[in-house]
């Protein structure tokens, strides 16, 4: 069966906008986030405190949080931080939740973080410790959980080990990333089972699917049936990773909500407001929303 309620973890302002060619003005980002919250989204990842040269699209993280004010200060408004410098900046902005982001593969650790997997875990350890000591909520992303564009298939046990290693640092929640969207439902079941064996139960797991191969909704349904209650999604299906070859947008929030509404699963979201936000954001970006539901409902 399906859970009666699902938490939609919105990543559009971060995963979505980090991948846009054009840099979106800070005020537009702030309005996007406010509109998402108004549509009922409680958990919204707002931005990243990464190196501004690596991701110039999100170089305005401090200004954005100043603009968001109270709306950015909540355990439900996480930001990405790779290292202690990122955590310092996040703390200055008074955020209350952070997400570290590791990799299941060596190649992607090098491309995304400029260091080996082992070195990146050493980089994350003090970040998690200090964040926890400060009473912050901490999420751990792991990328390339269902395949890597350079290394190909990644064995499920190796992925589960990489995930458990970050959770053992003391993180509150894991997000398993299908960065390039190649995963399929059987693979999702196998990974969740391997995680359970490592002591990471579905109650601490979120799923993060990119829809490159059109598998995101099927994979999500599979995860929900296995007991997962947190689903990452991006309004308008925005997204991708600048350091991952062939990564396209995330599962669109609107498509997820359509499916969950149909199944009678509670999300607390107002689909009409979400669609209006998606259409508005598409205008800002000068390109149509990638969400099928938005296309159908807005006649775009
Ligand atoms: P580095 O160059 O190795 O950093 O970058 P460093 O520690 O050697 O420091 C070099 C300089 O950078 C220093 O300045 C630092 O202060 C500065 P200097 O003393 O030379 O003047 N610096 C910083 N400045 C601002 N903010 C910081 C910061 N850190 C160092 N946080 C680093 C290492 C990890 C920072 C870099 O590789 C980086 O920023 N990577 C981020 C890549 C990224 O954002 N990728 C996208 C997000 S991941 C994703 O999208 C996947 C996900 O969606 C899940 C999925 O789909 O799979 C989450
Ligand atoms: Mg992603």
TrEMBL record:
Pfam families: HMGL-like. CDD domains: DRE_TIM_HMGL. PROSITE patterns: PYR_CT (PS50991). GO terms for molecular function: lyase activity. Keywords: Lyase, Metal-binding. It comes from the Bacteria. Residues 6-275 form the Pyruvate carboxyltransferase domain. Belongs to the HMG-CoA lyase family. This is Hydroxymethylglutaryl-CoA lyase.
